[in-house]
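Open question from group meeting: does this chain pack into something compact, or does most of it stay loose? Before anyone orders reagents, we agreed to write out a predicted structure and look at it together. Recording both the input and the output here so the notebook holds the full record.
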Amino acid sequence: MRLADYLGKQLKSDEMIDLLEAHALEVVYHFDHFHEGAPDEYRITDASAGFEMLRDESQKVRTVFCYVSAEGGISAIEPAIVGVPFLHSIAEVEATGRTMECEFSSKEGIEFLGRELSWAKLTFGARAWHYEFENAALRKITLMEGWSAP
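Structure tokens returned:
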């Protein structure tokens, strides 16, 4: 399976158990210990393979971060395991959106902590592919399910 195929999968599904056992991965549980009303979260990180999975309080995979370049102790991901195309510019994301007849949105020139970031997103109903760029280079692809933010 590719990472995109894990969206919506339950933590205890056969596919997830196989992934966890094959890569000796741990599930880290985060709960709202500050009583701020934040939902529980389950995180799986495979730093050597270049991805992180977030699960919601119902233990379903909702977000997969795919690191295109190494960052914070996480290696760069192998494109073949992601399951979505690597698009290297906002123009490529927009063109792909037109071809796939899905919703496209983007924002360019975001200054953040001395960095220049941009993003482009393709939305397919309840799923989305979010491409993040730093200084015009593809930095991260985030796969999402059940995401409603613009």
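Observations to bring back to the group:
The mean pLDDT is 91.
The CA atoms of residues 21 and 28 lie 15 Å apart.
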